[in-house]
Design brief:
The protein is α+β, with helices and mostly antiparallel strands. It has two helices and eight strands. It has a single domain, classed as Secreted effector protein pipB2 fold, CATH 3.30.2450.
């Protein structure tokens, strides 16, 4: 496995509903990272959505902001089925919160065991029993 997306969540000091989500993407070709304020319930709900098997619809988490009626995505992960052999595709988008035109975007292969481990790590992180959650995968073969 040579691709990874890692989420780290820092709960607010006043136990507000929002905390800082740091996302880091690492691939053989490039890396990117960003951060933004996210409600902890959103991450908990996303973790729960990862228990579906098989993925009949993509599992998606997306955060951003709206200005003047226009939504600007900042952090997005979509997991969808790829073929009949049980593979999955992770689509990742990470933009700079202050300059969203600067972004990193990648697709990589992953699988159900990796998603299950990512789900467990997310759940532990949201219970404050772990520091991060990492989804691992492999570079897509375009041959």
């Amino acid at each position: 496995m040579n691709c990874a997306l890692t989420f780290e969540y820092e709960f607010s000091r006043d136990d507000d509903d929002f905390g800082w989500l740091l996302a880091r993407l690492q691939t053989p070709d490039f890396s990117g990272r960003n951060g933004m304020w996210v409600q902890w319930q959103d991450l908990t709900d996303f973790a729960a959505s990862l228990s579906q098997y098989p993925f009949t619809n993509p599992a998606v988490c997306e955060w951003g902001f709206g200005e003047e009626g226009k939504f600007t995505p900042v952090t997005k992960l979509s997991l969808s089925a790829a073929g009949v052999r049980g593979g999955l595709i992770a689509d990742v988008f990470l933009a700079n919160y202050y300059e969203p035109a600067n972004f990193a975007q990648s697709r990589f292969q992953t699988d159900y065991p990796s998603v299950t481990e990512f789900q467990r790590q997310l759940e532990r992180m949201m219970r404050r029993e772990g520091s991060d959650a990492t989804l691992i995968g492999s570079k897509l073969n375009h041959s």
